Amino acid sequence: MEGAYGATESVKSEKNWVVYLVSCADHSLYCGITNDVDKRIEQHNRGSGAKYTRSRRPVELLATSACISKSDALKLEHQIKKSPADRKLSFLKRAKDNINMKSTKTLHEISNELYSVVKNLQNLTASVGNIVAAIENMNGEKLSQPKAKRTKRGPIRKKVVMKNGVVEMIKRVPSTKIVYDLLKKSDRGMDIPAIMKATGYDQRKVYNVTYRLKKEGKVKPAERGVYKAL
To answer: Model pTM greater than 0.70?
Structure first.
């Protein structure tokens, strides 16, 4: 028995809904939709979620779809409900891959356009450089060049431990520390897509990391889907 979350809410056109699949304590599966996975899993485990999961706690998140509209999420949820129990997880993952493939095609088209723009900018830069060189030759002096901006580094994932000037070990930085350090640097907090972009983690991992940080009392939701470090 499975049910949809938020059936009485108004339909939203934004693509911020996901279909999720959880494993219950009795090893049965529950499928639903939400626009806040972290909050929804907490509701299930508190017993304030769906009627089906109240007597089958705790639940564990298995997978989510990519972000889609609510109407598409309801359609996908209905398809998963009709599929056999041993195929629900693979069906959801396959659907996510198909959505990502469509997004990749769009990104590929954008990449081609950006490549063309970059090429034009490079040609323009070369032309400007030739003009500057010609002016310098005429005036016999160099024109001041703007300083190149430093590229922003991504989060540090490994830590080198030194002892007496010798590398003793290389430790892997936990994902919770990486996300927590990012949130500490942001006064306004960060949402799930921003954390995914900054860390390279997938959606499921970000949900699980933020859930652990909330349990440890290190972060709190500033608003729906946005987290701040405490």
So the answer is: no
